[in-house]
Amino acid sequence: MTVRPFPTGTILGYPRIGRRRELKRAVESFWAGRIDAAELEATAAGLRAATRERLADLGLGRADSAIPESFSYYDQVLDAAVAVGAIPARFERLRAADGGVDLAGYFTIARGEGDDAPLEMTKWFDSNYHYLVPEISPATRFELHAERIVAEFVEARDAGFLTRPVVVGPITFLLLAKAADDAPAGFRPIDRLDELVPVYAQLLAELAAAGAEWVQLDEPALVSESIDEPRARVIAAIAAAYDVLGAVDDRPAIFVAAPYGSLDDALPALAAAPVEAIGLDLVRGSLPDALDDLDPATAESLAAKTLVAGVVDGHNIWRGDLAAAFARVEAVQSLSGSVSVSTSTSLLHVPHDVDDESKLDPRLVSWLAFADQKVAQVATLARGLADGREAIAEALDAASVALADRAGAPGVRVPAVRERLAALQPGDFARADYDERLLAQDSLDLPELPTTTIGSFPQTGEIRRARAGVTNGTLTADEYAGLMREEIERVVRLQEELGLDVLVHGEPERNDMVQYFAELLDGFAVTEHGWVQSYGSRCTRPSILWGDVSRPAPMTVAWAEYAQSLTGQHVKGMLTGPVTILAWSFVRDDVPLGDTARQVALALRDEIADLEGAGIRIIQVDEPALRELLPLKLADQPAYLDWSVGSFRLATAGAASATQVHTHLCYSEFGVIIDAIKNLDADVTSIEAARSRMEVVDDLATSGFDHGIGPGVYDIHSPRVPSVDEVTTLLERAVGEIPANRLWVNPDCGLKTRGYDETVASLEHIIAATRAVRASLSVAAV
User: Fold this and answer.
1) Annotated catalytic, 529?
2) Reported pTM
3) What is the pLDDT of residues 181-235, one digit of tens each?
4) Which of 94, 520, 678, 743 is 20 to 30 A distant from 770 in Cα terms?
5) Maximum Cα–Cα distance for the chain, whole Å?
6) Are 326 and 396 in contact (CB under 8 A)?
7) Which helix (H) or strand (E) holds 141?
8) Which stretch of DSSP H or E encloses residue 167?
């Protein structure tokens, strides 16, 4: 096989939702039946074409495999599952005569249909992206159906681009999968590696036949020590997979990308594998400074490969220190004579273009780099690699000037905020004993198995139009507030009619659970067009945390007070926790995250005090992102858990014993942080559990978790309405493991993204199931 040189500069992936969320709108129109598959395909093809042209204009080569073919209609892990035939048994009906799955079937696997639940969803490493979890068993029939992967490469080729197909690698695919329900005890998806790899080998052959010169296999699982598999087995899998793939006679050259951290003990095995290029995250990870620091065999192997230096941060939006990045590239040259410049991760995690942001302070804009600016940085560094530092000296100096300006700007460091942090004492992080709080909270007078929701109710078109109206000036602030009060009253009355026990105000005034607070806290900025894919068609606009954080005024009190005035039932005050505000924002990289988390916590502590003063007895502080920021390296986890749990406790420790503090967690695998969840010391924790069919209750039962818990019984990430029997089954499983006097009943997450018809039907079923389980408990007690 003749290997064409790897491009001098590249990226690992690019945003795929469109600069104005064109893909989101097209996909949702397809789901709603407003367009057909052909129209959706045409929109997607147009977006892919525009992406290739844009990347070429920014400096990536059209004909050297520099441009990654990283598009997805929903999720790259789902794409891989469909491509290798890993279809769950309940969706076998979706297979066409040739064994493949069409676009409608692909979305059905992602979203569920009728009684068939979708694939489980969880976080992609330590990012805010969510992937769909493949289900594997000994019976899973691996066979190649990669028509879309090949077709998108051919589409690019016919338009004059030689691109690089991007596919989730076989090791990461299996390590991120779960054992299907029909798998025997002790089965692990990685057990099927030897049977899966030949399918990848066939894919390589088909791509080579289509003209692909390089293929990118993403293997971030190789850097993670948080995967539930012995590390030795993970490392052994490298040879088991890549010795086979490397031996394929006619194949593209293989580029293995390993983002989100250092390869560490996996580096020697990957260096020894017959692959032509290795991608290294040198933002979150590191490499030895010289060949002398490696064992001779690893040093010799690396010297013969292309090392793709991920020195441009793909995970955050700061312009950064370009001179330091170039110095890291130069250091990598001591390890290999063939070096390329890249982003540290896919640019999936950042918005398209900071030049779209006309309302941000120009000074702040000068400190930022979104996806397009990062591509330009890669092109600049690649030019320096080819032509020498002097060729890019002006660009390096300009980045250094911006970095210095950022460090000295007003608001970046606020003495009063830092003095308050310095004055904290251990007692500021602890509430009264839980038993004392339980006694004080008896006055809440709640029934057994109290029912509630997580916070948000559907955001209707009327709500979105009202928000747009106040933004563009067609509605006054008073008119907008009046409309929001009408919506709050409607939601309160609906909950009363349904029979829920603890109510919420529905959060119609909140555009997003983080952005809402970012707009009201000092130290944050928000964007107009800074959309980032969270999962599927769901997009968020992460706020930019650029300075020290403080609360100028109460943020939620007036809305909570109004809602409580409408009813004699308890209405929860709703706050977003410090870790989640950080996780779902673009955070500072110039101070420790723990310091910023405590700044946010103090602002929330003040808000809780004001909510109590307004008569709110139940306050929920959501921390759905607690698990996602957990470092991938075991050695880094204790420090993270210390400051993340500590910041939550700092926010809530000032609450009176009679105030019931709730928290909420979702999108996560909770077993690995169950002790941290206990240490939050919330009175009640609601937790995502429906999509995984109550798997978490085993962890809760064995951990000794002894506070209130609400494992979700309604998967709100799917449009399907769970039946009364389904909810009853989930509740009965929960009651079988958790004492009923500690159990709450709630959906998995907020209802913002759902429609009212499905929401009302689902809540009716939840109430009916709860009443049935309550009745059975009463009979059992007699």
Assistant:
1) no
2) 0.91
3) 999 999 999 999 999 999 999 999 999 999 999 999 999 999 999 898 999 999 9
4) 678
5) 85
6) yes
7) none
8) strand 164-168
